[in-house]
Amino acid sequence: MSEMALRAEIVAVAQAIDKAGFCPSKSGNVSARFEGGLLITPSGLPYAQTKPEDLIHLSQDGTILSGARKPSSEWPFHVEIYKARPDAQAIVHTHSPRATALSSARRGIPAFHYMIALCGGADVRCAEYATFGTPELALNAVKALEGRKAVLLANHGVIALGQTLAGAHTIVAEVENLAGQYLDLLASGLEPAILDEAEMARVSAKFAGYGKVG
After folding, report:
1. What is the pLDDT of residue 87?
2. Which of 55, 75, 109, 213 is most buried as measured by Cβ atoms within 10 A of its Cβ?
3. Residue-wise pLDDT tens for the chain (214 aa)?
4. Beta-strand (E) ranges in 41-110?
5. In a 3-state reduction of DSSP, which class is residue 116?
6. Residues 56, 69: contact at Cβ < 8 Å?
7. Is 20 domain-assigned?
8. Which phi and psi angles does 44 have, rounded to 5°?
9. Does the active-site annotation cover 74?
10. What pLDDT does residue 1 have?
């Protein structure tokens, strides 16, 4: 994929999550690996106004290589995740309403539904809280993402990673869906029936033969 095509796809994903209501007040960010570093959305620019040339090219250590704007304030966790996860080619971060509400209770999402397997394991963990944009938050996110493709950030939002931008986008949307269903179950007073690890392993194996899911 050419640089301009990659930039255009990053902007398209950012605008899609914004239109879905996942990025209130210009929150959230999107990145993809590029030339040993990454391309990331800028800080403080409404996604509806963002153009491919507004993206910032960062090195693997977070140094700005090109771009006239400041990178997203969350660039530290993008950098650290790419360092820790060679399988990750793209990252999507949102403040989607239901997942953010659940993260504010500092609860993850257990395997009440088999679609949890889309997120890379038998649950979606909730990372420990740290101030946004800090190295501490980056380290907490990397730790909670071990063996997973998605994580809730306590009192904050969601991170999803994928082998493609489309894959990361799909996962972050599914986390919001699952969080809403789980909150509805909790609100009803019903106790979710949790699928065991053996069943989740079977589901994961079936997903592996079902096509690319990020």
Report:
1. 96
2. 55
3. 899 999 999 999 999 999 999 999 889 999 999 999 999 999 999 999 999 999 999 999 999 999 999 999 999 999 999 999 999 999 999 999 999 999 999 999 999 999 999 999 999 999 999 999 999 999 999 999 999 999 999 999 999 999 999 999 999 999 999 999 999 999 999 999 999 999 999 999 998 866 555 5
4. 56-58, 64-66, 90-94
5. helix
6. yes
7. yes
8. 75, 5
9. yes
10. 87
Residue 145 near residue 151 (C-beta atoms within 8 A): yes
Q: Is 213 contained in some domain?
A: no
Domain count, the chain: 1
The pair of three-digit structure tokens given for residue 159, joined into one six-digit string: 């991170």
Beta strands in the chain (DSSP E): 29-34, 37-40, 56-58, 64-66, 90-94, 126-127, 150-153, 157-162
Domain that holds residue 164: 3-208
- Closest by alpha carbon to 18, among 51, 46, 52? 46
Question: In 3D, which of 113, 137, 136, 138 has the Cα closest to residue 123?
Answer: 113
Dihedral angle of Cα 61, 64, 66, 72, to the nearest 10 degrees: 100
**What's the CATH code of the domain at 114?**
3.40.225.10
Catalytic residue from among 35, 53, 74, 174: 74
Greatest extent of the chain over all pairs of C-alpha atoms, in Å:
52
pLDDT at position 26 is 87
214 falls within a domain: no
Residue 160 counted as domain residue: yes
